[in-house]
Every structure is written in structure tokens, then in C-alpha cells.
Write a structure and sequence with these properties.
globular; 514 residues; alpha/beta; Rossmann fold; 9-stranded mixed β-sheet; 5-stranded parallel β-sheet; single chain; 18 strands; 3 domains; GMP Synthetase, Chain A, domain 3
């Protein structure tokens, strides 16, 4: 299944994962590795091609990351993007310098010498739109290289070696803002690297089922099922692969949405999956008492989940494996030393449970991105209301309550969130959004109800549109819709006096508030 693969060397770009996703979208397996991995290790992976990501550093600094000369000389086709292009140039004897004019955002590109990487790219008035993000740029080409693209402020916006096996692009073909960017990557993957398609949904499912059967054999597997997309798809996959040898534990930490516990239990019981409920909300809220810091809240919730899960697991005999819904972005985001980007947030499902549980770890979707998981879920006939649901954080409402997590705040937020989500469904807006939720703010505001003064809670509505969750636009929901949601919340929940709407994109904000 994975005879052909593209290796992406990560120099710290926020778009590195997106490059890997784009390559997979055209039908070829891709894998991200840190720039610290040496040339021998990368060559041993037998890649059909190598893509060098962008990054925040400057190649003009002596200690900056660089591409190995051994890899450049290996004859493996290489595409350098932004920083990746600059480190290629420097290592091959070109010159990189800080540009007089920095380019961040939209730019128009014209072609130079003919290049196979631009095969069938259509121009409008001899130009096409790209997304730039750089301060440095290549000022002098390495020997035996030629210019293939230029912009108004960047004469060498693309280059290639004259033997056509090494390419550099100053712009980002992986982002949606670059016109025909996927076609450019497709040209590199198929025409230049000679890859064949090997990454379809059915191929992935068949391979994962075979892998699970080979690893697990006739042993029992325990899965912590949250009702979210990732763990639900793992449950469906393992149910198909090993049937009754799968046992699921659903921990109710009291921080789920209104009615979610009953919905999850009913859904998987009807499918025929062995799912067992652990009611532990009092334990979680007691441990969160007085805690205000969001990262501390995340860790307390994660550690408490492990404690409860371990206790429940001991009640089940002959369990040999622990399955988790870890996906590829979880692994990368939780790693600070394995990759060049900093730790974004803690994922309590990365790294498994304590060694004292003495269980072998099974992570069947560890190499997949969220959109791939959804496709697999649909193929496995996972219920649509689970597959189409918006992302929900592992710590649940614990990080959507700003400040201390208290029972009355949880109840307020659950009611308000249900009103918001129900209205989105009712008005056919839910599926057009990437994520929508309500946030409890640690402030109070004066209101008037009838002739009475009300000094109660303030809530914020949040709705965003995004392709990859790395950047996001705030959703321009209709004013009358926002007004209707606000009126319902204030009228139906006496402890709320005011509702506001968050109109901040990512960046500068994150999607979640904590």
C-alpha cells in the first residue's frame, strides 16, 4: 500500500501538516519528519520524493536548520518551499539575503524558464495568484540552476536545477490562497517523483484492519470512547476487525454537552458495541475546584480521566490492548523535541496510560488527518450525527468556562450551547460552519427583565469557517439569527443577562478561548 511515499522535512512552518495533507489528497502517502533526522535515516525510508517545508528562521543565521548536502546529492527529487527553497540555495552555493520589501499575503507570479512543476498551470494575463510569506529571499542562483517564476518584488520566486530534479518555490502551493497550488504539488508527486496512487479510503481501511488483526489476533482490546469523531471511528474500525473482543469505556466527566451521555450510549449500544459507562462528574469537579489556569485545567482533566479509566479497566478481565483515537496532528502538536514547532497544547491521548496498566498500545488512526478519519468513518457507516459533528475538545466544557469550573456554570453553558446548536441546525447553518460553540465568561453584566434589574452572567457565541483549522475566519452569521439565539438564551436561562458575538479570526486569536 505504501510503496510510494513523499517525505516532508519539517523546518517549523505552521503549514507543514498542510503539505502532508495536500499530498495525501492527490492520492499518495506522505509522512512528516523533523529536520534533525539525518540523511541516512531519511534515505532508509526509501522516499519517492522529498519536500522541504517553510519555517520561521532565517538561513542567514549561522545556527539555522539546513538541508543535508548528502540528501541533495542523493538524486531523490526535492521540492523546497519558502525556507526550504532558501536552505537549498545556501547549501548549493547560492546567496540568500533579507529582502528590501517583505512579502506577506497575496502576490502575482509570472513564469520564467519552462518547468515540469508548472505543467498545465493556467495563467490569466500571463500571471497567477499565490500566497507569499517571507522576509528573506534568494538573490543569486546556485550554479546549474535557472529561474522558473518571478513576482513584482521577488525576482527569483521559483527555481529549478537544469537536470530538473531539484525545485524551489518562494510561495506556498499548499495553502488554498495559492491558485492551482494542488496541481503544482500533483505535478511534483506524479510527473517528477513518478509516484502511483496508493492512498484511497478503501485501501486505508483494508490495510488498518489487516494490521489490527495481525497485531491483536484473538486478544481483547479496551477503548476509551468519548463520542467524538476520532474515538468513534476507532470503535467502528475495531468492531469490524475484532468484533466482540472490543470493550469500550465511556467516562462521563460531567463536562459534556447537554444530553450527550445518553446519546452516545444509545448510539453504540444499538450498533452492538460493548460500551460501559463510568459516572465520574463529581470527581472531576472536585479536583477542578479553585483552578483558573487553562493548561492546569487540561492536565487535571487528563490525569483524572486516566485515574478513572484505570479503575474501570481493572474490572474487566483478560484485557491485553489499549486502543486510542490518536491522530497525526495530536502527535505533532504534542511533540516539542521531535519536531521544530512548539508544543501547542497537551493531548492526554498521546503517550498512552501509565505503564503499570501493562497494556500494549493500539493506535490504528495515528497516521491520519481529521478529514481522512471522517472519510473512513463514512465508509464504515459510522452514524452521520457523529461524523458530521463539530470538533469538541477532550477537556470538554472545562476549557470553555473561563475561570473556575463550577456546577452552576456547567449547567448554564450546557443549556446555552444546546440553544445555539439547535438553532444552527434548525436554520440549516450548522453544516456550513467548521465549529460553533458558546463560551462562559467570568464576568457579570447589568440587565433589565420586566421592571427588575438583573446582574448576571455574560456568554460569548463563537462560530468559525476554516479548511484546515490552522487559520480560520469568524463566521458572518445573519444578524437576525444571532439576535434570535441571544434572545432565547437570555429569556430561557435566568442566570444570563448578556450575550456577545466573537468576531476575531485565527490568527490573532485561537479558535477555542482556552
Amino acid at each position: 500500500m505504501k510503496e510510494h511515499k513523499i517525505i516532508i522535512i519539517d523546518f517549523g512552518s505552521q503549514y507543514t501538516q498542510l503539505i502532508a495533507r495536500r499530498v495525501r489528497e492527490v492520492g499518495v502517502y506522505s509522512l512528516v519528519v523533523p529536520s534533525s533526522k539525518n540523511a541516512q535515516e531519511i534515505k532508509a525510508m526509501n522516499p519517492s520524493g522529498i519536500i522541504l517545508s517553510g519555517g520561521p528562521e532565517s538561513v542567514t543565521v549561522s545556527k539555522s536548520q539546513k538541508i543535508s548536502k548528502e540528501l541533495i546529492d542523493s538524486r531523490i527529487p526535492i521540492l523546497g518551499i519558502c525556507y526550504g527553497m532558501q536552505t537549498l540555495s545556501k547549501e548549493l552555493g547560492g546567496r540568500v539575503a533579507s529582502a528590501d520589501i517583505h512579502e506577506f499575503g497575496h502576490a502575482e507570479i509570472s513564469f520564467g524558464n519552462p518547468s515540469p512543476i508548472f505543467k498545465n498551470i493556467k495563467l490569466k494575463n500571463n500571471l497567477f495568484d499565490v500566497w507569499m510569506s517571507h522576509g528573506d529571499q534568494v538573490e543569486k542562483l546556485p550554479n546549474n540552476f535557472e529561474v522558473i517564476a518571478s513576482s513584482k518584488d521577488c525576482q527569483i520566486a521559483g527555481f529549478q536545477s537544469k537536470d530538473k530534479s531539484i525545485f524551489g518555490l518562494q510561495f506556498h502551493p499548499e495553502v488554498t490562497h495559492t491558485e492551482q497550488g494542488t496541481k503544482i504539488l500533483s505535478n511534483f508527486v506524479f510527473d517528477i517523483c513518478g509516484c502511483k496512487k496508493n492512498w484511497s479510503t478503501k485501501d486505508i481501511i483494508n490495510s488498518m484492519i489487516d494490521d489490527v488483526k495481525m497485531q491483536v489476533k484473538n486478544e481483547k482490546v479496551l477503548l476509551g470512547l468519548s463520542g467524538g469523531v476520532d474515538s468513534s471511528v476507532v470503535a467502528m474500525l475495531l468492531h469490524k476487525a475484532i468484533g466482540s473482543n472490543l470493550v469500550c469505556i465511556f467516562v462521563d466527566h460531567g463536562l459534556l454537552r447537554l444530553g450527550e451521555v445518553d446519546e452516545v450510549m444509545t448510539t453504540f449500544q444499538e450498533i452492538g458495541i460493548d460500551i460501559r459507562l463510568s459516572k465520574a462528574s463529581n470527581i472531576f469537579t472536585s479536583r477542578l475546584k479553585g483552578v483558573l489556569d487553562p493548561e492546569k485545567k487540561r492536565k487535571i482533566i487528563g490525569n483524572t480521566f486516566i485515574d478513572i479509566f484505570e479503575k474501570e479497566a481493572k474490572k474487566i478481565k483478560n484485557i491485553n490492548w489499549l486502543a486510542q483515537g490518536t491522530i497525526y496532528p495530536d502527535v505533532i502538536e504534542s511533540s516539542s523535541d521531535g519536531h521544530n514547532s512548539s508544543v501547542i497544547k497537551s493531548h492526554h491521548n498521546v503517550g498512552g496510560l501509565p505503564e503499570r496498566m501493562n497494556l500494549k498500545l493500539l493506535e490504528p488512526i495515528r497516521k491520519l488527518f481529521k478529514d481522512e478519519v471522517r472519510k473512513i468513518g463514512k465508509e464504515l457507516k459510522t452514524p452521520e450525527h457523529i461524523i458530521s459533528r463539530h470538533p469538541f475538545p477532550g477537556p470538554g466544557l472545562g476549557i470553555r468556562i473561563m475561570g473556575e469550573v463550577l456546577n452552576d456554570r456547567i449547567k448554564t453553558l450546557q443549556k446555552a450551547d444546546k440553544i445555539f446548536i439547535d438553532e444552527l441546525h434548525k436554520n440549516n447553518l450548522y453544516d456550513s460552519l467548521s465549529q460553533a460553540f458558546v463560551v462562559y465568561l467570568p464576568i457579570k453584566s447589568v440587565g433589565v427583565v420586566g421592571d427588575e434589574r438583573r446582574y448576571e452572567d455574560v456568554l460569548a457565541l463563537r462560530a468559525v469557517e476554516t479548511v484546515d483549522f490552522m487559520t480560520a475566519k469568524w463566521a458572518h452569521l445573519p444578524y437576525d439569527f444571532i439576535g434570535r439565539v441571544s434572545n432565547r438564551i437570555v429569556n430561557e436561562i435566568p442566570t444570563v443577562s448578556r450575550v456577545v458575538y466573537d468576531c476575531t479570526g485565527k490568527p490573532p486569536a485561537t479558535i477555542e478561548w482556552e
